[in-house]
Amino acid sequence: MKLRLLALLTVFVTSFSVLSAAEPPEGFRAIFNGSDLSGWHGMPHFNPRDLAKMSEEMRAMKISEWTEDARMHWSVENAELVNDGHGAYLVTDEEFTDYELLIDYKTVPKADSGIYLKATPQVQIWDYTEEAKFKLGADKGSGGLWNNSAGAPGKDPAVRADKAFGEWNSFRIRQIGARTSVWLNGEMVVDNAIMENYWDRKKPLDPSGPICLQTHGGEIRWKNIYIREIAPEEANSILAAREADGFASVFNGKDLSGWGGAVDNYEVVDGSIRCKQGKGGILHTEQQYSDFAVRLEFLTPPGGNNGLAIRTNGKGDPAYDAMCELQVLDSEHPKYANLDARQYHGSAYGMVAAERGFLREAGQWNFQEVIVRGSTLHVELNGSVILDTDLSKVTEYMGGRAHPGKDVASGAFGFAGHGDAVQFRNVHIRTLAE
Description:
Blueprint: H1 2-21, E1 29-30, E2 40-43, H2 48-53, H3 56-73, E3 74-77, E4 80-83, E5 89-92, E6 99-107, E7 113-117, E8 120-125, E9 169-176, E10 179-184, E11 187-194, E12 211-213, E13 220-229, H4 232-241, E14 248-249, E15 259-261, E16 266-269, E17 272-275, E18 280-289, E19 292-299, E20 305-312, H5 318-321, E21 324-329, E22 366-373, E23 376-381, E24 384-390, E25 411-418, E26 423-431
Antiparallel strand pairs: 1-13, 2-5, 3-4, 4-13, 5-12, 6-9, 6-13, 7-8, 7-12, 9-10, 10-11, 14-26, 15-18, 16-17, 17-26, 18-25, 19-22, 19-26, 20-21, 20-25, 22-23, 23-24
């Protein structure tokens, strides 16, 4: 009797464990229902921007064709997505911006697959024993951002963490903007690397897009596909924690100690520096910098306008008299619809245009990092690089007006108010070796 009860208990515990394993972890939701292909469609290796250019009717027709092809090669068995190694990829109907993805897979020898993020290739899945592909990096294992440029961070996984064939592997993938981290079977294999835009390497990764499961020559099975969307506050904290050594706070959150210039036109509100409505001018650090990196968060009210004064002496117009003014602007507000491209958020005002589409909605906190080395500027907004330029090479200026300050070698860092209640907080600066 005891043996029978023990056997029944074992079956119950085993069954309970299986059921529990299929439940999304706290904060996550399933994007594969375990029974059919609802919420997914087919698409081959195809540029999403070309798809977006199609008419709505043509786009619907192509997706219908691809989905019909996908259904010939994808099936569901025992709550597992199964692909026979052929056909269109399987793509989520939903698009995602900042998120954490959990997904398990199991494949066979000589198979080659991957996971497209924001419709872009890819988190690589290899047969790490296939010697014919060692020259491509297969021996390094799975999980790398294989389509990044040679030598770029994240292209190769930091460690080989693949399990033997026949065993399930588990990915945890986190993406904030283009900043991508990958864990394979509990091992971090990619650490906050920028995922390059395979479709146009001169542009940043699209701000949002679907997740695609690649098919490539061998059976692969997927299960336990869960997602957790990351809110701005958490995203900002994660971005700020990356390689934070050496950054020092230049704002104490209480008053404007250590700052000079237009101090009467700014106020401290809820741990942030806020430009007083209707006021402006340059509020700047007392300390001077040559090469440095600054990290901060900012919030614009609807239509808000301010700027980051780079290497300013606190006088004149920082757009012309400092190295530059990097725009802080609610770029998508209707009143700014007809600006010069060099006036939108993140741009070196009047000199070099930044990429658009990476700002959060007005009223939400954004995270931005600016790296200043010599005459170069590197601007990363919410995890995506929106400006990477050398001001010494600028020869054309908005309105034909030159910027004599662009060659300034050192100066203070500050905010250039333009009458709107724009806020800044968590301002940290790291000096860089010259």
